[in-house]
């Protein structure tokens, strides 16, 4: 029996890390999950620094081919191990649309969630500044608009843009964010619950939410 030699270095509360793992689950590729506890600074272990000098999760090691950046990991896994190209289309324009949503997540959505949550988890903040709240809500408006005409964030079928954005958005929901103004997002989040690996993702999102809520003045 052959054993998987695909390793994913992972920490469940991290949204990018969950995004890569959820992509692997939806693609259906078996990965050995190796937990690095960031609160114990395990990512700074000498053995991991040798694998990834940037010492971040998620990091993928596919038989010695090492890559990090959660969305790049998802693209690689979908291209290499996807049963077909639905999760990451080969058609240039459909692929460009998935890439656009992935970049939307990496450069707009997730950084705005992080800008709110990291100071609360790590720097003693107990409140969310109005400017940051408005900024994130503005970005959620765009996501809600993407879902106006589409069942999934990049079209009519699930793609790796959905898995990345699910990881970000479940974390935000577990923080207790108000999604009342975003009916499409609420509907889409319900649909995402059908994805393989969703419950595993949710567990990490809840851990993240608890870290924020414990310090947030209600
Ligand atoms: N853009 C990266 C972000 C990765 C990232 O920020 N990882 C954090 C956890 S959320 C990390 O590993 N921090 C520990 C460190 O950098 O030492 C991705 O999507 O993979």
Automatic annotation (TrEMBL):
<dbReference type="InterPro" id="IPR004046">
    <property type="entry name" value="GST_C"/>
</dbReference>
<comment type="similarity">
    <text>Belongs to the GST superfamily.</text>
</comment>
<dbReference type="Pfam" id="PF00043">
    <property type="entry name" value="GST_C"/>
</dbReference>
<dbReference type="InterPro" id="IPR010987">
    <property type="entry name" value="Glutathione-S-Trfase_C-like"/>
</dbReference>
<protein>
    <submittedName>
        <fullName>Glutathione S-transferase 1</fullName>
    </submittedName>
</protein>
<feature type="domain" description="GST N-terminal">
    <location>
        <begin position="4"/>
        <end position="85"/>
    </location>
</feature>
<comment type="subunit">
    <text>Homodimer.</text>
</comment>
<dbReference type="Pfam" id="PF02798">
    <property type="entry name" value="GST_N"/>
</dbReference>
<dbReference type="GO" id="GO:0006749">
    <property type="term" value="P:glutathione metabolic process"/>
</dbReference>
<dbReference type="GO" id="GO:0004364">
    <property type="term" value="F:glutathione transferase activity"/>
</dbReference>
<dbReference type="InterPro" id="IPR040079">
    <property type="entry name" value="Glutathione_S-Trfase"/>
</dbReference>
<dbReference type="InterPro" id="IPR036282">
    <property type="entry name" value="Glutathione-S-Trfase_C_sf"/>
</dbReference>
<feature type="domain" description="GST C-terminal">
    <location>
        <begin position="91"/>
        <end position="216"/>
    </location>
</feature>
<dbReference type="InterPro" id="IPR036249">
    <property type="entry name" value="Thioredoxin-like_sf"/>
</dbReference>
<dbReference type="InterPro" id="IPR004045">
    <property type="entry name" value="Glutathione_S-Trfase_N"/>
</dbReference>
């Amino acid at each position: 029996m052959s054993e998987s030699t695909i390793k994913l270095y992972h920490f469940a509360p991290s949204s990018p890390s969950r995004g890569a793992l959820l992509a692997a689950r939806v693609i259906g590729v078996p990965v050995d999950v190796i937990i690095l506890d960031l609160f114990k600074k395990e990512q700074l272990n000498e053995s991991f620094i040798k694998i990834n000098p940037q010492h971040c999760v998620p990091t993928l090691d596919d038989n010695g081919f090492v890559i990090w950046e959660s969305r790049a990991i998802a693209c690689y896994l979908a291209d290499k191990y996807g049963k077909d190209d639905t999760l990451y289309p080969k058609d240039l324009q459909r692929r460009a649309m998935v890439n656009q949503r992935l970049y939307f997540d990496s450069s707009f959505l997730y950084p705005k969630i992080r800008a709110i949550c990291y100071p609360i988890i790590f720097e003693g903040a107990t409140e969310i500044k109005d400017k940051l709240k408005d900024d994130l809500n503005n970005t959620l408006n765009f996501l809600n608009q993407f879902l106006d005409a589409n069942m999934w964030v990049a079209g009519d079928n699930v793609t790796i843009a959905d898995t990345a954005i699910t990881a970000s958005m479940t974390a935000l929901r577990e923080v207790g964010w108000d999604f009342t103004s975003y009916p499409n997002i609420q509907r889409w989040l319900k649909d995402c619950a059908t994805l393989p690996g969703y419950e595993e993702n949710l567990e990490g999102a809840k851990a993240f939410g608890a870290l924020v809520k414990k310090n947030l003045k209600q």
